[in-house]
Structure formats: C-alpha cells, structure tokens
C-alpha cells in the first residue's frame, strides 16, 4: 500500500482508502515517509494499538488505530513515560 494523504501529522490515509491514527510517540518515524513509501498493515498484540504500519524499505514500524477510534485512556501517557 502507498500513502494517499498524510496532511495531518497524526493521521495517514492509504491508497486503499483506510485512515489510521499514528501513535504520538511514533510520529518521528513517519517524517521520512513519502507518497511512494511502500507500507503494509499488520495486526498488533500491543496493548495500545490494534495494528502497526510497517515500512517495507527499512522495516520501521508505527503503532496505529483506525482514524475514527480513540486511544485507550491512560495508555498513551503510560507508554510515552516508558512504562
């Protein structure tokens, strides 16, 4: 899959029409993404996110949830603090 739009730093729309919120602690990883970046979506066993987007070029991963979902209360803060 390719990036269709990434106008908001925390939301990415893929060329299949799906939209994903990027975990706040993973935003820096997306700075190198370009429209031609090849991504694939995998389910996640992470307690914070339902899925991960994986950059096929460098195998970097970002945690995501569907754009219409909300992050679990307290989990974002806990993860950002390293716990």
Folded structure, characterized:
The chain is mainly beta and 83 residues long. The chain contains 1 helix and 6 strands, in the order E-E-E-E-E-E-H. The chain has a 6-stranded antiparallel β-sheet with strand order 1-2-3-6-5-4, with no helix packed on it. The longest helix is centred in the last third of the chain and has 6 residues. It is globular and about 35 Å long. The model has no long low-confidence stretch (mean pLDDT 89).
**Number of H/I helices:** 1
Provide the succession of SSEs: EEEEEEH
Number of strands: 6
Strand arrangement in the largest pleated sheet: 1-2-3-6-5-4
Mean pLDDT: 89
Which class best fits the helix and strand makeup? mainly beta
Low confidence ranges = none
Could you give the distance between the termini?
32 Å
Give the strand content: 25-35%
The rough form would be described as: globular
Main beta sheet: strand number and arrangement?
6 strands, antiparallel
Radius of gyration: 12 Å
Q: Write down the oligomeric state.
A: single chain
**Residue share in helices?**
under 10%
When the domains are counted, the total is 1
